Structure formats: structure tokens, C-alpha cells
Amino acid sequence: MKLSSKGRYAVMALADLAKFEPNEPVSLRDISLRQGISLDYLEQLFLKLKKNNIVISVRGKKGGYVLSKKATDIKISDIFFAVQEKVQTMGCEKESKKGCNGKTVKCITHNLWDELEEYINNFFKNKSLEDLVNQPKINN
Predict the structure, then answer these.
(1) In tens digits, what is the pLDDT along the chain, a chain of 140 residues?
(2) CATH code, domain carrying 73
(3) Quick check: 64 and 29 in contact, CB under 8 A?
(4) How many beta carbons lie within 10 A of that of residue 54, not counting itself?
(5) What pTM did the predictor assign?
(6) Residue 79 to residues 26, 99, 125, 128, Cα–Cα distance (Å)
């Protein structure tokens, strides 16, 4: 299982937004410079985030983006949903009669991956943007 860049970058950008200026608009250019994410890519992500009411755009000279609600109320799963990121550990759909091996029966490890997927998705439903912003820094 691997998250795509859109899911990872959306979370990074929103954590940046929440951490640096929680009540003031932040430009995508500033986020781009701090996080090393392409400005064009951020613009695409923030269109989706705005459409899904995660952020609000503010126009004007000191414009940019602000969170639409408190960071404690924005779950990581909300962010993934907004940018169409799907955390999936199986090659098949849960409801499908066919397994990921193309046969009519599911593979012997199907339930293991299904349980892992549920665990991961619950983890993201319970983690808020605030959790990321307030976590202690790890020095490498």
C-alpha cells in the first residue's frame, strides 16, 4: 500500500497552513516554498480542498487560504476524501464476488488485507490536522 503524492502533499500543505498562520490567509507560494511542493500542483489540490469545504480562499493583496474550520475538526480522512485519495490494501473491491487474483474465490489472505485497510482508514479518521501540528519534532 502506498499513498499517492496528492494525498501526502494535501496533508503536508494543510499542516503547513494550520501551523504557520492559523487565522491569517497563507499564499500557496509560501506553502510551496516551505514544503517543496510545485505551485501548480498545490493550485490543483486546493481547488479540490476548497470545493470540499476544507479551506476558504481569501482575495486581495494579503489573500491566500485559511482553514474552513478548526484544525481539530479536520480529520486526515477528510483531506484524503477531498483530493480523491483512497487508501486501499487490496487489488479487488470489498463487495466484489471475484478476488484480486481474478478467480471466483477470494485469495487466502483477503481477510488479512481487508482488516489492515479498515485499521488504516480508522487511524486516519481519528487523526486530526491539529494532531500533526502539535506532534513533537523528531530529530534525525
Answers:
(1) 667 889 999 999 999 999 876 678 999 999 999 999 999 999 999 999 999 999 999 998 888 999 999 999 999 999 999 998 887 777 666 666 666 666 667 777 888 888 998 999 999 999 999 998 887 766 65
(2) 1.10.10.10
(3) no
(4) 24
(5) 0.83
(6) 18, 29, 10, 10
Residue 117 belongs to a domain? no
Per-residue cell: 68? 474552513
Any domain includes 66 = yes
Flag whether 100 is in a domain: no
In a domain, residue 57? The reply is yes
C-alpha cell at 20: 504557520
Range of the domain at 58: 5-86+128-133
* CA max distance for the chain: 60
- Domain count of the fold of the chain: 1
d(CA 96, CA 98): 5
